[in-house]
Amino acid sequence: MKLLARKATCNSHGQDSSYFLGWQEYEKNPYHEYQNPTGIIQMGLAENQLSFDLLESWLAKNPDTTSFKRNGESIFRELALFQDYHGLPAFKHALVEFMGELRGNRVSFDPSKLVLTAGATSANETLIFCLAEPGEAFLLPTPYYPGFDRDLKWRTGVEIVPIHCNSSNGFRITQSALDEAYQQAQKQNLKVKGVLITNPSNPLGTTISRDEFDHLINFIASKGIHLISDEIYSGTVFDSPGFVSVAEVLMDRNLQETDVWERVHIVYSLSKDLGLPGFRVGAIYSNDVTVVAAATKMSSFGLVSSQTQYLLSAMLSDKKFSRNYIIENQRRLKKRHGMLVSGLLNAGIRCLKSNAGLFCWVDMRHLLSSNTFEAEMELWKKILYEVRLNISPGSSCHCTEPGWFRVCFANMSEDTLNLSMQRIKAFVDSTAATTSNDSDTPSQRQLVRNSRRGSLTKWVFRLSSYERKAER
Ligand SMILES: Cc1ncc(COP(=O)(O)O)c(C=O)c1O
Fold it and tell me: Which residues belong to any copy of the Aminotransferase class I/classII large domain (predicted)?
């Protein structure tokens, strides 16, 4: 046996979940409209590629920011030398202003309460390190972002206890679900240190309602625990009801003078709203000075480069640009979301009603061979290998009901999205057309399954070559 630490060899990283396995399969056979038209279309990646042209045109008009210059003078040496972990004041100022803008300026943020981190991944882990000991627990509403198993648990040793939400009320957080999760943690002898929500939700694409906030705030107040609100998708809200940040709720309920004020922490990042996950820019915002001081020291392990901070402080402080970007990006997301919802409906598939995010939460329960997670995996594999779409099964998001899938719509061209909708419709139609009779023998049923597989593969190929001809 190798002489390694347990963390290096244990599998609590979650790399073997179907969420990540789907990405690996996609890498082996990625769709390309000319080079690989029958390949797998990536619909399991919550990336926002819809507004790159806006960012690129700003960069073209502001060449100083990418060539280490300020007013024509080189600042290369200033940027190249070590920056301390407090971050560039100009960038922190620009980022809090942008966060205020995303909330309609109904709340403002103080840069001294902001800690910069290498993305929301690092922000969430750092907060958990600050708020909980190994073996203590955080409660998370299900379904949740699969990366949380890695980000919150793996290195911190903290446990996640699910708050089970279900389709009967559109996966809303209820008082009884919160109470049940708390009791479940107690049964497991786990001390609960807080609740973590994503608002808007990944994977649901919905915003947290005032009612849910009331339950959450009352709950953390009565139990004396923390609330982390991951607001990484705050700029993606494209429809009513609009986005309400936990920061606004605290103000509306006049909680500034209470202990709850210091127990609510916000996570943010530019990975989704600006579509810059490669830049690794995230932040923690907290009213607790001890948390801010500790997280600032910990941020040494995941700083944002000064070059990136310099570029983005110039971009975000261009108010005319950033305001226009927010509106235009939301308009484009709304259009894409509409294309996905209507494309799926055309194939007889419904989505949970949503108003935000880069994905839909899609109901495929009627396509399962039985109401089980085994049947969900069977359907997921068919969609991955035969239809050649990588979507994320609900089980990877810890959903308690089989048959739900997260499908992303903002990481591809409109043509690719249309093609994916044609493929899924062909799949559903072929499934309906070849459904075998109950009286069929097992071998007859196998024959039907084989012929379905063959005809679908031909469909995928035909659709793709048709697309290419139409393009020319
Ligand atoms: C809810 C949520 N939090 C955090 C992250 C990680 O984001 P980042 O790229 O900023 O680390 C993601 C990424 O998908 C996410 O969906």
Answer: 41-423
